[in-house]
Amino acid sequence: MNFWQVFTKLCNAHGESATCVLSKLELSKGNANRWKNGGGPTLATAVKIAQYFNITLDELIAEKNGKK
User: Fold this and answer.
1) pTM score, two decimals?
2) Model confidence band, residue 68 (pLDDT cutoffs 50, 70, 90)
3) Which of 1, 40, 18, 37 is nearest to 53 (CA)?
């Protein structure tokens, strides 16, 4: 599972669109494009996302690795 799939899965689980969450976290749409193409977030961005969804960074990584 690539990071974009993890991110959109979390967004959907919380009833929010990916665009809305990106905006709330003050992240550019360029991040979404990079993630869609298989890239991942920086550590600082991953921490922001984990905090936003009230999960640990370990949980975010486990989700990415299909271990959740």
Assistant:
1) 0.87
2) low
3) 18
